[in-house]
Amino acid sequence: MTVQFDRDVRIKVEGLDIAGLHASFRIVKTLRKEPNTCELTIFNLSQPHRDEIAQSKAPIVEIKAGYKGRDDPGAALIEVPALPFGAGDDEPEEPGLVFLGNVRDADSGFEPPDWITSLESGDGEKATRFSRINKSFVAGTSLATVLNEVAKSMSVGIGNAKKQIAKGNLLEAGKAFLNSVTVSGQSSKELDRIVKSAGLEWSIQDGALQLLELRKPLADVSIVLAPDTGLIGSPTIGNDGIVRVRSLLNSDIVPGRELEIDSKVLTQGPSEGGLADVLGVNLDLDAALGLGGAESGSRFRAERVEYIGSNYDRDYYCDIEAVEL
Predict the structure, then answer these.
(1) For the residues of 163-208, what is the DSSP string, one character each?
(2) Are 119 and 142 in a shared domain?
(3) pLDDT score at 77
(4) pLDDT tens across 166-221, in order?
């Protein structure tokens, strides 16, 4: 059983360490091309710091969240191949990153007795909306090389692409163009065109490009969610086939991550008005998803993760939307 208490939240705004002040956040991350977002509220920043943030141009926001005094972030992580998370680590790691992006709107106001600073931020907004590229490549250039150049034009990191290509997980990315190729125009649209032609999908996660094979999860680790590893309540499934799960806040639960949900029951979501809701009964998770029983397991890919947290009150959890693998 893992331990999840004594939260550890670390927030920086343009290098300014928000320590000793109350702060709360709502972060939404998805596998879509639209930027991930963050709503950050900070209480009682000093006047000089409020002015500094207001005068900065698109200041960087970094939020890390986890738990103190422990090596693992909560839910059980199974590496591929399986290894216990943290094996061989001598020192506890600092909390994991849950958001990295730029402020697009900052506002401060006095609501007695507090000064409240509200920051709305986006991850990779400039990269997806304004970056452009005009570059030609000779025949025989690898897709990986082209992807790297497009990422550079967007001023985002290459992310998992290099690692995945090296592992051979993104087989198409190692292939070469038979003819010369030109990428010209809005970088995000060119990236979309190239990635789709290779049977891949992309998103920007914490300032870096993330590539996945279509409908496949990240290849590094799988997270087991169970009542003793952070699962809160029972998973629900809607008529749209989306499984909705709540867990204690865990920075390793990210869009694209494979989840193994250790729950024997599935509750029909109340908003769906299904038969199970009307009758007040539970549905077997595997049967509802057509997985063929417990032996098949309950494997999903996280499509959307909403992180709700603060460093001072009770809210500290993830709301996850996932699809069956």
Answers:
(1) HHHHHTSSGGGG-B-SS-EEEEEEHHHHHHHHHHHTTEEEEEETTE
(2) no
(3) 60
(4) 555 454 555 678 888 899 999 999 999 888 887 889 999 999 999 898 899 998 78
Note whether 223 and 257 are within 8 A (CB): yes
Same domain, 251 and 318: yes
4 versus 93: the higher-pLDDT residue is 93
Residue 288 in tokens: 């509802």
- Report which of 198, 194, 195, 150 is spatially closest to residue 172, judged by C-alpha positions: 198
HSE value, Cβ hemisphere, 13 Å, CA-based, for 235: 33
**Which amino acid belongs to residue 229?**
T
Total domains, the chain: 3
Q: What one-letter code names the amino acid at 57?
A: K
Task: Assess whether the previous peptide bond of 113 is cis (omega < 30° from 0).
Answer: yes
Please report the DSSP string for 107-138 in residue order: EEEEETTEEEEEEEEEESHHHHHT-EEEEEE-
Q: What is the DSSP letter of 278?
A: H
Task: Please say whether the beta carbons of 118 and 40 come within 8 A.
Answer: yes
CATH for 50: 2.30.300.10
Rounded distance between C-alpha atoms, residue 94 and residue 88, angstroms: 16
Give the closest residue to 32 by CA, choosing from 171, 205, 217.
205
